[in-house]
Task: structure prediction
Amino acid sequence: MMKLALLCAVLAGAAVPAAAGKAASGIWVEAEAFAAKGGWVVDQQFMDEMGSAYLLAHGMGVPVADAVTQVTVPAGGQWHVYVRTYNWTAPWSDKRGPGAFRIAVGGKTLEPELGATGSRWEWQEAGCVQLPRGTAELRLRDLTGFDGRVDAVYLSRKAAAPPADGEALTAFRRRMLALPDDPAEVRPYDFVVVGGGIAGMCAAVAAARQGLRVALVNDRPVLGGNNSAEVRVHLGGQIELGRYPALGRMQREFAHSTFGNARPAESYEDEKKQAFISGEPLVELYAPWRAVSVRMAPGAGERRIASVVVRQVESSREIALTAPLFADCTGDGSLGVMAGADSRYGRESREEYGESLAQEKADSTVLGASVQWYSEERPGTFPEFDYGLPFSDESVQRVTMGEWTWETGMQHDMTREFERIRDYGLLVIYSNWSYLKNRLGLYPERSLGWVAFVSGKRESRRLLGDYVFKQDDIDKNVFHEDGTFSVSWTIDLHFPDPANTKYFPDEPFKARTRHTPVYPAAVPYRCLYSRNVGNLFMAGRDISVTHVALGSTRVMRTCGMSGEVVGLAAGVCHAHGVAPREVYRSYLSELQALMEKGAAVEGPLPDNQHFNTSSVLSAPRLLKAAE
Ligand SMILES: Cc1cc2nc3c(=O)[nH]c(=O)nc-3n(C[C@H](O)[C@H](O)[C@H](O)COP(=O)(O)OP(=O)(O)OC[C@H]3O[C@@H](n4cnc5c(N)ncnc54)[C@H](O)[C@@H]3O)c2cc1C
Result:
C-alpha cells in the first residue's frame, strides 16, 4: 500500500484524533453504489473471487466520464482516504499498469494515481482531506480508459486501512454496510431459478405457465446470458426436434432472428427477452441480483436447500428467497456448489466413460472463455499498449474484429481465476490493436467500436445427477425411457490454435475446434436434477454431462430446452408435493405428457430459428462447422 500517512499528519498539523466508535471511525462506500456512474460500468463477474462487484473504467483506451456520489460526513476534521483497487496487468508485466485513476473528495483531487501499481486487490492510500461535517462529494476520475477498477472507498479518521482481503475483509465490509448475518426479509416462492441465461429464462417461464410462483435471479441487469448484447453470442442448435418436437417452440417468442457473433447490440434483441419475462405475471425478476449463499434445511436426511440469499448488485441489500424447489441455471453450478451438490470440473479420462474423444488421462482443462470485440469505420489513433506479451510482425493478428476463436483460460480455473481469464482477453485485444495501429500503421481509418467486458464462458463446473450423459449416448443414439430434449449440435470441442500457441506457448488466446456429427439423442431427465441435493434442478451448461457430451449440449437453443423441461418437471413436483427424483420414479408419464405439449403459448409464432443450427446425422444437410 502506498504510504502517505506521514504526509497526512504534517498537512493536518496535528495528531489524528482517535475515533469515538466504529461507525464514527469510517465511511464506507461501495463503488458500484455510486449515484452517478458516469462512464464507469458495474462489474459483478468476480464477486466470489475478490469479494464484491466493482466499477470498471471500460473506455477502450479513451478515459470515461467521472463517477460521482455524495457521502455523509459525521464529523468535521481530517479524513484518510483509501481506495480498494487492482493493477490488472500485474500478472504479465512489472510496468506501471494502464488502469490509472484519481479520486477527488469534497472537491479536492488527491494527487496519487491509483490502480497502476501493486499485484493484487489492495487498499491504496489516496491521501488526506479536511472535511466539514455534512455531505461531501466523491468523484472517481479515470485517466486512461483502460479498465481501472474500484471496489470500495473508505474514509477513516485513523491512518488505518481495512483488512486487505479474505474473511476479515468480508466481515469488515458487512459491518460497515450493516448487513445482518441472515437477511431480515424472507420472500416465499414455489420455485427459485438462479441464472437468467436462455436456460434460466425458459425454466422460469415453463414453471410459471404451470401455475408456480417463480423468482428468477440474474446478476446482470439484462437477460440472456451469453446471448445478451453484453456478450453477443448468437443462438445455436435446433429446437422442435426429436422425441418431443414441441420442446423449444417457446424460444420463438423471444429469440433474436439474425445470424452472427459480435454484431452490433441490437442484433441480440434483448428487449424481446425482457418482454418475455415481464409478460409472465407469476415470474418475479431479480436483476441485477446475485445468489451469494444458501441456507440448508435442518435435519439428518437428504440435503435440501431451504433458501437462497440474493444480493442486489449495486446496493448490497440482501434478502432470502425460500421455496421447495430450486434450479441452478448459473452456468457455473454456483448454487449447487454452495449447497454441497456433487460436481465435476475438467475433462474425464477416456476410460471413465468409454469416450473415444476424451483424453487418455483426466485433467482440469476446459473450453475457454471469450472477450469478443470489433472495430468500426471511424478514423482514430490508439495509445501504445504493451504489457509484456510477445507481439511481433509474425504473431500479431491482422484482423479488425474477433469472435469465438478469441478464447482464453482453458488451463485456468473458471471459478477461481476468472478475473485473470477475462483480463487476459482484454490484454490481448488491446496489445494486438496497438501493435497493428502503432507499429504497423494499419487501419488508420478504424477505431475500436466494442470490446466486451463481460467475458463469455463456455464451461466450468457441471453438477452431477442420477445419470451422466456421455459420448456413447450420442454416438449410439441410446434410448432412455426418460429421454427429454434432443441434442443437435456437433460435439464441438475446442483446443488451442497451434499457430497461436507457437508464439504464446504459456497462454495462447486463439482456439480452433473439431466437430463430430451427432444423432438427435434425447438427454435423460436424470441429468437435470442433483444426485445429492434433493430439491435442486439444473439446466443449461451445468447439467450432468461429461466434458465431451457438453461439446454438444452447451449450445443455447439446447440449453433453453433443458430449462423448459426443468420448468415442466417443477410443475409436476409442485402438483404432487414431491422432489425432482420422484418425477422419474413415479410421475414420468405426467412429465412426458407435458413435454408433448411444450411450454410455448398457443397460436402462431414467428418461424425465426433457422440460423446457426449445426446439423444432425438424421438430417439431409451436410454438416456445417458454423460456430
Ligand atoms: C464466444 C462463444 C461462442 C459460442 N458460440 C455459441 C453459438 O454459436 N451458439 C450457441 O448456442 N452457443 C454458443 N456458445 C455456448 C453458449 O453461449 C453457452 O453454453 C450458453 O450460454 C449456456 O447457457 P446458460 O443459460 O447455461 O448460461 P449463461 O448463458 O452463461 O447464463 C448464465 C446466467 O446466469 C447468471 N449468473 C451466474 N451466476 C449467478 C449467480 N450466482 N446469481 C445470479 N445470476 C447468476 C449469469 O450472469 C448469466 O446471465 C458460445 C459461447 C461463447 C463464449
